Amino acid sequence: KGEVLVELVDIQGRVLEILDQGARTEGLQIIEFNASDLAAGTYAIRLTLEGVEVSSKMVVKTSR
Predict the structure, then answer these.
(1) How far apart are CA 7 and CA 47, in angstroms?
(2) pTM recorded for the entire structure
(3) Which of 7, 41, 52, 61 is least crowded, fewest Cβ atoms below 10 Å from its Cβ?
């Protein structure tokens, strides 16, 4: 539990959007976001807890 920051980051490390921010309790958390405005490419979802990056997952958006 603690202060959480979830960001969408481009391949150069620039923050494109803050997906979630604030105090959270322990347990499963679900965050939904609309990626329809993103260009095709590789992005990362970065999770920071109490100011320390604890996870970063790469995601790929394909064009349709």
Answers:
(1) 7
(2) 0.86
(3) 52
